């Protein structure tokens, strides 16, 4: 059992240091400040072969992503809005979660999922965020009450890369807090189940 919950973030674009990647990095930093371990997959980490059902061979980057998600007790997804929905890069990475279909914790079962959508305009941010919620529900995840729709046409970052919009910074902090709080609750639940199994096994051995 991990001493700290692990929060895995995936997002960004094929270009490094995109707005969605920087927002994701900030959110994971807030998770770390709240006591969680974090792991990030962004940009080239998500440049994966096109998902194909039934294929057993996976490249190293895909195996690393799925291994990280299997260990995760919380997830944060950040996608740019491309033509009114999530980018192909993010959707393809999420399609690989199908490899977790036969896990004990199927897909994102029992995990809080924080969602961030960025786009050049409010309409696209809204539809992209709605798509992320639909995908999360399909993967049996628990979308956090706080989610971010960020209009990249409005100044968000300063010259040093820091977030200058205090409203966005506050929302990211709330999102991170909700993901970590839920992840800690899940960790305690898993630990109590393990302790219960251990006590039953010990009791059974003593009665023999």
TrEMBL record:
Instruction: Reply yes or no: does the keyword Oxidoreductase apply.
Output: yes
The protein's matches in InterPro entries, at most eight in alphabetical order, are given as: Flavoprotein-like_sf (IPR029039), FMN_Rdtase-like_dom (IPR005025), NAD(P)H-dep_reductase (IPR050712)
Q: What EC designation does it have?
A: 1.5.1.38
The record's Gene3D superfamilies line, in alphabetical order, gives:
3.40.50.360
What are the NADPH-dependent FMN reductase-like domain coordinates in residue numbering?
Answer: 7-150
What terms describe the molecular function in GO for this protein?
Answer: FMN binding; FMN reductase (NADPH) activity
Cellular component per GO?
cytosol
Pfam families membership: FMN_red (PF03358)
Say if the entry is tagged with keyword Oxidoreductase.
Answer: yes
Q: What keyword terms does UniProt attach to this protein?
A: Oxidoreductase
Give the main EC class.
Answer: oxidoreductase
**Membrane-crossing residues?**
none
PANTHER family xref list: CHROMATE REDUCTASE, NAD(P)H-DEPENDENT FMN REDUCTASE LOT6
Q: What is this protein called?
A: FMN reductase
Q: Which organism is it from?
A: Sphingobium boeckii
